[in-house]
Design a protein that fits this description.
Number of helices: 5
Largest sheet: 5 strands, parallel
CATH architecture: 3-Layer(aba) Sandwich
CATH superfamily: Rhodanese-like domain
Strand content: 15-25%
Oligomer: single chain
Shape: globular
Number of strands: 7
Structural class: alpha/beta
Radius of gyration: 14 Å
Number of domains: 1
InterPro entries: GlpE_sulfurtransferase, Rhodanese-like_dom, Rhodanese-like_dom_sf
Low-confidence stretches: 122-139
Mean pLDDT: 85
Order of helices and strands: EHEHEEHEHEHE
Protein name: Rhodanese-like domain-containing protein
Pfam family, one: Rhodanese
Length: about 140
Amino acid sequence: MNTDQKTLRDARQYCPTLIQRKLEQENAMLVDVREEDEVAQLVFDVPNVIYLPMSEFEQRFAELPKDRELILSCSVGERSLKATYFLMYHGYEKVANMEDGLKKWIRKGFPVRGDIASITSARACCSPITSPSTSGSCC
């Protein structure tokens, strides 16, 4: 029996409508874990966004504040869900995942800057935190 295992509660999943309110009224912070090439094409047009690529997440997650609500996002919500659980495992309590990611954010008509068409080819990426995704492939 491995005594080092932690039991984590289910991660909170927020829809873009709730997130928009939290960003505007509750000083929450959006953490975008998409890679640099993805962010170069399309970004969230809201205050309080931190870009922390999944390929650097394990090395840099401690830069994120523990005393502020963090909402993680990626293109479709898979990478950011993994990052949410990673933070929970490391003692972050005020974390949630953006349900269906940037694609749903756009469908709801919330603000972005850049090429919206680029999100149609976005990778969902199921690679673990420790393995950065390779260019042109995901899993």
